[in-house]
Amino acid sequence: MTQIRPMTLHDYDAVIALMKQTPGVSVRDADSRDAVGRYLERNPGLSFVACADEADGIVGTQAAHRAIVGCIMSGHDGRRGYLQHLVVHPDHRRRGLGGALATHCIDALAALGIHKCHVDVLKNNASGADFWTRQGWSLRTDIDRYSHIRGGNANA
């Protein structure tokens, strides 16, 4: 049985390990423990993890008898919501878990009065693009995103 609950900083190691083993997900310096801690503190109750019993086929990655098999982070700028790092372990895909994680974020953002969300998908992440399209999200073609990296660190 899989349970979805709010993400805490105690989940960091398991979440990062899951992200690092997932094709199409980029882990950068901005995903450090300190940075994630600041993100979770700034956006309380808006990021979630999915935990499964060891009997569900994943050996526990935490001291408890539940393993993190999915995660999603979200936040907002006061007007728009931003979903990031939706990851579901391959053994738990195609069961509605990714959609359920996204819905938790969207519902939590809506409770704050935020009704429009964005998600960025790397161009080389075809499975991510397919997932969001199946969920009813629309690819924006009217804007381009530009980034500035202070100090020039390409992995910022």
UniProtKB/TrEMBL annotation:
This is GNAT family N-acetyltransferase. Transmembrane segments: none annotated. Keywords: Acyltransferase, Transferase. It comes from Pararobbsia silviterrae. GO terms for molecular function: acyltransferase activity, transferring groups other than amino-acyl groups. The keyword Acyltransferase applies. Residues 2-156 form the N-acetyltransferase domain. InterPro entries: Acyl_CoA_acyltransferase, Bact_Acetyltransf, GNAT_dom. SUPFAM superfamilies: Acyl-CoA N-acyltransferases (Nat) (SSF55729).
